[in-house]
Amino acid sequence: MAKILIAEDERDIRDLIEFTLKYAGHEVIKASNGAEAVELAPQVIPDLILMDVRMPRMTGYEACRTLKNMDNVKDIPIVFLSAKGQQSEMDTGLDAGAYDYILKPFAPDQLTRRIAEILTKFGIE
Amino acid sequence: MSAITIENDLVHYEVLGRGRPVILVHGWLGSWRYWIPAMQQLSMKYRTYALDLWGFGDSGKDVQHFGFASQVALLDAFMEKMGIAKVALVGHGLGAAVAIRYATQHPDRVPRLMVVCPPLFRMAPPINPLTANPTPANQLPQPADTPSGTVPQMPELAPPDVQTESETMPVKSEEMRKRIEAALAARAKEAGSAPKSPREAATPPTDQPATEEAATGKTAQPHVPALPEALSDVPVMPKMEFQPEVQVQQANPLKEHLGTLDPLALLEKHVEAGPDLDKLKTEVTKADRRVIALSVESYAGVDTLRELYALPMPTLAVHGANDSFLPPPDAEMSTQLKGARPNFNLIVFPNNRHFPMLESIAPFTRLVLDFLEAPDVSKITIKETWERRVR
What we know:
The complex is a heterodimer of chains A (125) and B (391). Chain A is of the alpha/beta class and 125 residues long.
């Protein structure tokens, strides 16, 4: 199973994602904003980064761009959590170097399935 | 993974969300894990706890704790340790019986109660809801608890209509018997084998270990449903390191109904093949092999149906229509339950067996949310479509 870094400022959603992925068999590391994710990623070298767009201290876009310029983590797939209907958010995220996005609101089992699909594409079991 | 120490042993639990507390208590076949989908949905509004009862999942496996009363005491100690003064309880199977007993003992601490597939068997002549005179909590029959202990006498203050042996024999109505046989026949058909006749199936295997009937010299007359042929050689009791010393026979319709107390045999008999069965097998394998047998043995004399009649708080009972493990109440019992008390509802999921929380995740979770919020639980119904909003 994979090591997944999640960056989400809303505690309830962060806990729900952690709970969902943990009991799907993944190891989960949590960050509460973009800056914390940028700090943690080189230390833990996750297989996947799941990141909210709007976060304090450093937005998801900024964090994504920063991570994509760091040698040891630049190839880690980043997936944004984006509010439904915000097409511009999705485009900006993809331009920043994200691999994919998952729309909010999401059902926990859908999140698990999407993550599994993405991990499979990257050859991560 | 979170854990606390109770009675010098480890109790595993998980918690998710913020808000008013809800405790989810699992049943005989599984562990806290099958509450995961419910916890995910409830966590946006409630602080949801799910714990492993003694002997199950990752909780302690001290055999001295496996009795029914110890599981009730565990729930009480868990609430104390977690600082929970009042809680909505949701229990399934064994967890439902535990929750009902806890709510009977502490009605002021349980503002709402939801019981999923509770073990409801008649222990006495049908209760007239108008004259039902519930036994006070401090006079409830105490089940045998410690495995090395003996089953206590029924207290003198037990309701007067449960005095004679014939009256204390469990009653399974013709309707309920037919429904169980139909569910098991369907299960056997899916498994590729035809069920035996009820008479053949009710014949216990010859290698059955000594039971309390044997110990007392009385002939058991179990209303055991037909077993699929493929399962007919399953031992009735798992081999245990010791057997409870039973000196007084108390009615135990649950034990008679189940027939076998072997965890995996029960699972395969009552759960449809598929992903749910695979997941549950993992959890059932994790449980101590003796815990089902000992908790069912110690359930003797416990009248969950009578306790349910008498509870004062808003209560929702949920069953799977095709549940052969703990079948839904028959029409007469349902009518009496609904008429016995206000703010009560009994809902049957039409196509479900013993795990509506896994078989009908979205409608079940919606039902739990409605139950937690409805001013009058008698008005709530199953709603098929539902979408959770995160923001």
